Amino acid sequence: MSNGALGAPRLPGSQPLAKPRIAVISARRESLLRAGDSRIADQIFYIAMLACGATILALVVLIVFELITKSSLSWHAFGFKFFIASEWDPVNDKYGALPFVYGTLISSLLSLLIAVPLAIGTAVFVTELSPRWLRNPLAFTTELLAAIPSVIYGLWAIFVLVPLLRQYVQPWLAKYFGWTTLFEGPPYGIGMLAAGIILAIMILPIISSITREVMTAVPQQQREAVLALGATRWEMIRTGVLRNARAGILGGIILGLGRALGETMAVTMVIGNRPEIAKSLFAPGYTMASVIANEFSEATGDTYLSALVEVGLALFLVTIIVNIFAQLLVWSVTRGMPARSNG
Amino acid sequence: MADKEHKSLGMPHAISLYRRAANSLVVGAAGLAVFLVLLPLGAIFAYLVYKGIGSLNWAFLTETPKPVGELGGGMANAIAGSVYILLIASAIGVPVGIGAGIFLSEYGRNRLGNFIRFTADVLNGVPSIIIGIVAYGLVVLSQHHFSALAGGVALAIMMVPTIARTTEEMLLLVPIQVREAAYGLGVSRWRTTLSITLRTATSGVITGVMLAFARVAGETAPLLFTAFGNQYWNWNWGQPTAALPLQIFSYAISPFDEWHRQAWAGALILIVLIVISVTAVRIAAGRGMLRGAN
Asked: pTM above 0.95?
């Protein structure tokens, strides 16, 4: 039936003759018939879903557009010097973002230094060493760390971690490792060290879960082959598993880095919020994300606001590049794996 | 060569002391790592429950904040505000996210689909504070007001990519034969997608939605300069609105003991809400999400 209706308009010059026998009831019904069963509905559905998908593209374009237009004032005023000047003086409208860049980099690297060994150790234990019944509960518990909101980490850090650091850890570090000049100055508790530790706790789950994922992607035969050659458990893990999964593990680490760079609340609450570049990890610092969090809603003056948005633009670009790089690394290992639901 | 193999086969003790020591060392270190990871988790939960329960009372759940210096008062308006903002966010973010997921799984096996998939992953990695700036520029500047709507928009932007990707993953788990059976009965494509494919994957899709919801429920950074916070009740979407995470933040960094106490109570409420939704998701997902299909 629909074939006749479909064929009709395709014959040029013979429209009156080829008209279907169903009389024209209404223009709308005719168009429905001609379009086949529910082709129009299908078209509309497709367009609606396409619109939803395109929203994602539009959002990213919108973010880039907003950040670039709103920061142009600061860009024109300071140019590239914005990122090498270290003076942040809203009163005199002079802005340099170096202390924030420094604080973000140091706190993130410090957190990686702490989190990476722990995360890989946990992943190795969960996937290779732990008894089978313990695997899922352990994986679930480490993932629970990821569900705790940033602000609660911050709250805990202020009232538990910082006093602990001030009273016990920092004096001890100063006494035995003071010679490295990394642990100098009065032990406030609050500062770069506290920020690094709390960030490490926060990025642990992501690194650990991706490491687990790429380790399970290594074929079982690899393990059996290495074991059959007489390797110990550790040698099997090292040569059979870790070596094959290293690109993916690196990807997980870099994803963790991306998370640490953009993390805002917990860091803001413990880093001390002082735009200074200090070598000591005991000293307070400031990060790109926390300066935006603290000063954006109070920023008076267009240049001030624009400078903050420019800090945001820089943060955005850095996290995007880091994330894309990490994603590609993880894909290089897990690609071709069937979709897994829950471990 | 053959000799050597024979030897080690005959004598398992031929594994050198060094290799055995390295093995035990690593096993021990991995165990220690697990312990060190679980330690802060336990510490946070224990302290949260200890401090939070001590500070929870009826007034906390029913009253608005008292001025500085006065004891008592609560976060009722912040709890309600959070729910309000999350409802706005879900109303915007969930349909768009599911729609995008449908597009990716049903129409997205091509270049455009790959590009959108990639962009969704990029959007997922954008720091939440940046999303706040964008929502500020988009809503607050045009309304000339901090508002619940702006907060909702910010959280919705964060929900969309997560929901889209999990929805896609869940829809792809529905076997192609299920779709073909529907087509064979003459059911149109859109009808198949909505009533057969999406229906089959419902519990998986809900899992994704809940995870996205739990993720944004505790977000503070994007609300700082969108919803902004409020000391009083507010049900107007065009006005500044209190939110639980915001209230916890401002109380935590304040110098008053009474406010610290309330920050702990608020944190307990927040974490209980999130843990309940995440655990519910685990249970629902564990019950076999494709029961209809198998």
From this structure: no
